[in-house]
Q: What sequence folds into this?
């Protein structure tokens, strides 16, 4: 006997079609849930691997540490190249960083942890990429430095805003001693002195620390209030910031401690164009260099005669290159490392 299905009519056919569609969607949802779960598990495992395993040790020979911006799986990771061959093969660390800086035995990494709630953190690694310490940051990573002794770390973040262009940003800059049990100190709590007078205004902003070689207590930074910007010299022990020059942002002191390089705004505050300038600390003479691009970076000294800095690629979002330029006012910029950002030179 042959069994035949009962005619269903239009309503019956629609019911069957809806049932089939629901089953298909349920199946797709189940597989999508499994895929998301597997992705989250793999991401968590990768994050744990970054912290526990790390990458190859920092090179024994002089090197440049930077953030890799070449496309691929290692995008955004801290990487190194030999100082003698900056265009050569790069060793990636497996550690994601928005901003990084290093010495021979330590690396600081500022990063954004995206999720249901976005978090920001600083992590300190040893030369084997083993995480030694981690602490929360209050905003978007911007600048980082380690002093030459490896005893202190300076960090700058955007608490509001996301760039130094215009007047709508607020920063928090801290110097964190790396001794056991030590806590970070916000430079907002330091006394700001301009022309012998304390600046008490609530709109003070401090950013871009550079440590003075051979002087663990001394550093330079940028301070701003009421539309004015100063290069300030700081003392950790005295908790003071003393203005020494006008209009200098994101300073970087030379290896011999005689000059400070910085970005200098040659346009208005709402549409800035930053040139690179160098101040001789003994004579007070300022030299503006020939780089025509706007350099929104804290420059790094390659040596006592050459600077390094990052420039975003205009044709590739998220990509950038590191350039070099001599401090001679006649020098022209030269490409140093492709697909890279946030350099530090380690000898």
A:
């Amino acid at each position: 006997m042959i069994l035949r299905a009962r005619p269903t009519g239009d309503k019956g056919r629609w019911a069957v079609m809806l049932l089939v569609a629901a089953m298909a969607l349920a199946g797709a949802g189940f597989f999508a849930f499994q895929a998301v779960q597997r992705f989250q598990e793999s991401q968590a495992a990768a994050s744990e691997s970054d912290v526990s395993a790390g990458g190859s040790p920092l090179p024994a020979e002089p090197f440049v540490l930077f953030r890799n911006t070449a496309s691929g799986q290692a995008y955004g990771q801290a990487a190194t190249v030999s100082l003698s061959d900056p265009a050569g093969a790069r060793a990636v660390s497996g550690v994601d960083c928005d901003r990084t800086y290093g010495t021979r035995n330590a690396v600081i990494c500022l990063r954004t942890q995206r999720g249901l709630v976005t978090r920001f953190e600083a992590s300190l690694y040893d030369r084997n990429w083993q995480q030694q310490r981690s602490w929360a940051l209050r905003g978007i990573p911007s600048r980082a430095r380690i002093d030459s002794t490896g005893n202190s770390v300076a960090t700058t973040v955007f608490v509001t805003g996301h760039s130094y262009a215009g007047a709508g940003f607020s920063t928090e800059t801290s110097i964190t001693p790396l001794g056991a049990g030590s806590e970070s100190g916000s430079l907002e709590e330091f006394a700001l002195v301009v022309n012998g007078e304390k600046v008490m205004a609530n709109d003070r902003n401090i950013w871009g620390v550079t440590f003075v070689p051979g002087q663990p207590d001394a550093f330079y930074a940028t301070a701003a209030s009421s539309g004015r910007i100063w290069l300030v010299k700081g003392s950790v022990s005295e908790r003071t910031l003393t203005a020494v020059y006008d209009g200098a942002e994101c300073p970087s002191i030379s290896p011999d401690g005689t000059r400070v390089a910085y970005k200098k705004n040659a346009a208005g505050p709402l549409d800035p164009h930053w040139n690179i300038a160098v101040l001789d600390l003994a004579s007070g003479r300022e030299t503006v260099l020939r780089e025509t691009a706007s350099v929104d970076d804290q420059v790094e000294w390659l040596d006592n005669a050459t600077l390094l800095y990052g420039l975003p690629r205009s044709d590739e979002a998220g990509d950038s290159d590191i350039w070099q330029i001599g401090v001679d006012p006649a020098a022209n910029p030269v490409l140093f490392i492709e697909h890279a950002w946030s350099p530090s030179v380690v000898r």
